[in-house]
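Q: How would the C-alpha cells look for this protein?
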Amino acid sequence: MSQQKPLPFQYQFAAGAVAGVSEILLMYPLDVVKTRVQLQQGKGVGEEAYNGMVDCFRKIIRNEGFSRLYRGINAPILMEAPKRATKFAANDEWGKFYRSLFATPAMTQSLSILTGASAGATESFVVVPFELIKIRLQDRASAGKYNGMVDAVVKTVKAEGPLALYNGLESTMWRHVLWNAGYFGVIFQIRTLLPKAEGKRAQMTNDLIAGAAGGAVGTIINTPLDVVKSRIQNSPKVKGQVPKYNWAWPAVGTVMKEEGVAALYKGFLPKVLRLGPGGGVLLVVFTGVMDFFRGWRGEEGV
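A: Here is the predicted structure in C-alpha cell form.
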C-alpha cells in the first residue's frame, strides 16, 4: 500500500487484521441491510418486503429488534482478520512480483490494477466459507433455522456436504477481483493527484479521500457480481437439482432477464455507504498501524 520499504509479512498481517475488524464493527448493520435487499427477488410487496435501505432498516428494527442488525457478526469478525490481512499482504506481495516481472522499479496505475485484481483472487479462497454462513444467517428466512454460526456450519455440512461451504467461489472471485482492481487502482491515481501530505493529519486526510474514492469505485464495478453471489450462496444444494443461480455470469443474465438491469444494483446504497467510507477507514487504520510498527522498529522514513 505504501511506497516505503514493505515490512515483513507478520506486520502486514497484523495491520490488516486491526483495520478489518475496526471497519466491520462500524459498518456491519449496512451489510445486513444490503444482503436482505439483494436476496429479495422482484419488487417487494407487503409488510415484510423492503422498498429500499431506509425501509429495510426501519422494518428490521421494528419487526425483529435492533440486535438483528448484528445477526451473524461472528462469521465476518472471524473472517475479517484473515480477509483484510490477506488483501493488504497479498497486494504488497503481488506488487513486488509484478514490479520484478515487468522490470518496473516503481508502481504504476496499470500495475496497481493488476496487483489489486490478483490480491482479490487470492483473498477469495479465504473468505468464501465465512461469506456463505454470514449470508445464510443474515437472511430473514433463517431466523428459526440456525441458532448461530456454529449451528449454521454444522447444518450446512450435514445437509449439503463439506464442499457446500465453497458454494459461490467463482462468483466471489469475480466480486473480489473487480473490487480490488478498482479500489487499489483508484487509490494509486488519487494519491498522485492530491497535494503531498505535510504531517500526520494531512496524510490521514489524503488516505481517507483516496480510500473512500477507491471503495466507491470498486463498489460501482462489482455490485452486480455481489448480488448474484448473495443469491448463489443462499441457494441450498439439493441432490439431482440444478440451482437457479449457479455460476456468476449466467446468474447475471437471469437477474437481468427476470428483474431488469436495475436489479443488479440492489443493495447498492448501503453497500457504497459501507465500502466508500469503510475503504477510507481501512486505509487510515492500516496505514496508521504500519507507521506504528515502523516507528517501533526504528524504520520511520525508510
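The two ends are 14 Å apart (CA to CA).

The mean pLDDT is 85.

Upvote if useful.
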